[in-house]
Write a structure and sequence with these properties.
nine-stranded mixed β-sheet; TIM Barrel; 15 helices; Arc Repressor Mutant, subunit A; 2 domains
């Protein structure tokens, strides 16, 4: 089965750390929605398997869309694709958008999973990030969503930034556990060039990040969530049994997906393509039937590298049979590199898989890159 990603490129405010494609002007919102619908029509034959197991509204801030707009996009998808019986339909939301009436509308539209951008339960942290919501909004949005019948909820946390003490970080995690959140995505803050945060740090207005703090926060997170029965199924993702993200898991397991909207990426097993990252250009090109994406045909080496990168980030690791079947040419190089990391206890191996150890998880991307074919 396949997945569909819908990029909604609008935000109320620009978070200081964000380098995703978005606009704080919402004047073209309906035109974007109309163009999303048109793109779905144009690309209905892209996926080899038209059975859809997950739909994900990401952004940006999808909760800025009206229920009518969300419903129109979902309705168009259902005209051209077949949704699985338990299709996961996720919508990313800012806490300050999730009023009782909004939550009722989302549920009526068919949204059955919420991804709430909490980041922290402390106002000073939210101000540091230039978030649009307050700690009170964060807490109340989760409680209200649960009262309205949303059981499948994930929240985002940030860690590894100067304001976040060990005490505050533990309190954030404890609050999530108290609220009985079944899925948590936690990301170490990174500084991307071109962002406001990069500018502030380079000018000395904000202190630089401390990598040792990020490692400590990660270790605390792993220990606390493991104690409460969470499975660390991907480097940044933790879930109670039965609450894995079907959509994101499909990315990590190399399944096909269709990306709709400005800057959205698509993958069909052999090629990858990405849409123009400009709202006005996207609208214009879609409606004038002009090329609106770039495409890369993936070489065997590129597909192997992507498999290694994504697989090592998950608890399932690299599957030996899959490696033998799909990438036999690269097995000698893989085996040679593998022995080094097994000896140093960054990897562990059983009869079917090779996975990162707890020690290895701290260096996941670096380890994966050492296996790349270049």
């Amino acid at each position: 089965m396949s997945g569909i990603y819908i990029h909604i490129p609008f935000c109320k405010k620009a978070c200081y750390y964000c380098d995703f494609h978005f606009s704080t002007s919402q004047k073209n919102k309906q035109e974007i929605v109309d163009s999303l619908i048109k793109e779905i029509q144009l690309r209905k034959e892209y996926l080899p398997d038209k059975k859809i197991q997950s739909i994900y509204f990401g952004g940006g801030t999808p909760s800025l869309l009206s229920s009518t707009q969300i419903h129109s996009v979902l309705n168009e998808i259902q005209k051209h694709f077949s949704l699985s019986e338990n299709c996961e339909i996720t919508l990313e939301a800012n806490p300050d958008d999730l009023s009782i009436s909004k939550l009722k509308e989302l549920k009526n539209c068919g949204i059955n999973r919420l991804s709430i951008g909490v980041q922290s339960f402390f106002d000073e942290d939210l101000e540091y990030f230039n978030r649009s919501h307050s700690a009170k909004n964060a807490l109340e949005s989760i409680q209200t969503a649960q009262q309205e019948g949303f059981e499948n909820i994930t929240i985002d946390f940030m860690y590894g930034f100067p304001l976040l003490s060990t005490k505050k970080w533990k309190q954030n995690i404890q609050m999530a556990l108290k609220l009985k959140i079944p899925h948590i995505s936690a990301y170490s803050l990174t500084i991307e060039k071109g962002t406001a945060l990069h500018h502030f740090i380079s000018k000395g207005k904000y202190p630089p990040l401390n990598e040792e703090n990020a490692v400590k926060h990660f270790q605390i997170l792993c220990k606390m969530l493991r104690t409460e029965g969470f499975e660390h199924y991907e480097i940044s993702n933790f879930a109670l049994p039965g609450f894995y993200s079907a959509h994101n898991t499909s990315y990590w397991q190399q399944k096909n997906y269709l990306g709709i909207g400005p800057s959205a990426h698509s993958f069909n097993g052999n090629s990858r393509q990405w849409n123009v990252a400009n709202n006005i250009q996207y609208i214009k090109k879609i409606n004038n039937l002009q090329p609106f994406f770039e495409k890369e045909q993936l070489s065997e080496a590129t597909r192997y590298n992507e498999y290694i990168l994504t697989s090592f980030r998950t608890m399932w690791g690299v599957e030996k049979k899959y490696l033998q079947k799909k990438f036999a040419n690269f097995l000698p190089a893989f085996t040679k590199q593998k022995e080094k990391y097994l000896t140093e206890k960054y990897l562990t191996e059983n009869q079917t898989r090779i996975v990162l150890t707890e020690k290895g998880k701290l260096f996941a991307d670096q380890i994966a890159s050492d296996f790349f074919i270049v």
